[in-house]
Design goal:
Strand content: under 5%
Number of strands: 0
Structural class: mainly alpha
CATH superfamily: Homeodomain-like
Distance between the termini: 114 Å
Number of domains: 1
CATH class: Mainly Alpha
CATH architecture: Orthogonal Bundle
CATH topology: Arc Repressor Mutant, subunit A
Radius of gyration: 42 Å
Largest sheet: none
Low-confidence stretches: none
Length: about 160
């Protein structure tokens, strides 16, 4: 018979775990917000104030720290996710800008090629006339004008001509 009593007592908890009242939770939360680590003196003081076993107070702190860590990890994850979304948005905007600038560059190259083809045909007829009279100042002026036109095309300032 003593054996069965011993086995029954073995499974009984040493203290009766009860739910905390709102006042007890509030006091524990306030204490936790002040210091997330529980010093032994503080544990016994809280246990006495709350009418709880010190072990229950220690376990509450342990659980609270675990929940607090998970919440902070979730907040960090959300902040990183927001930064990633912003970076991806910036990347997309910059890719569009690069595409637009490449199109402008292609346009400028085409204008330069068409200008140089036109200028070449003009230059060849001018060089023939320059050879006849020995003067090349008109050719130099045309080349300078083409360079200014190309620069204005690249900078978008046609009024600078």
């Amino acid at each position: 018979m003593d054996y069965f009593k011993f086995q029954a007592q073995k499974h009984l908890p040493k203290w009766n775990k009860r739910r905390l009242t709102q006042d007890q939770q509030r006091l524990l939360e306030t204490s936790f917000n002040f210091n997330t680590k529980l010093e032994p003196d503080r544990k016994f003081q809280l246990a006495q104030e709350l009418g709880l076993p010190p072990r229950q107070v220690a376990i509450w702190y342990q659980n609270k720290r675990a929940r607090w860590k998970n919440q902070s990890l979730e907040m960090d994850y959300k902040a990183l996710q927001l930064r990633l979304e912003n970076a991806l948005g910036d990347n997309k905007r910059l890719e569009k800008e690069v595409h637009r600038l490449k199109q402008e560059l292609d346009k400028a190259h085409k204008m330069l090629l068409s200008s140089s083809n036109t200028a070449y045909s003009s230059f060849s007829s001018l060089s023939a006339s320059c050879d006849e009279d020995g003067s090349s100042s008109f050719l130099d002026n045309s080349k300078s004008c083409l360079e200014k036109e190309f620069y204005a095309c690249l900078t978008g300032g046609e009024d600078q001509l």
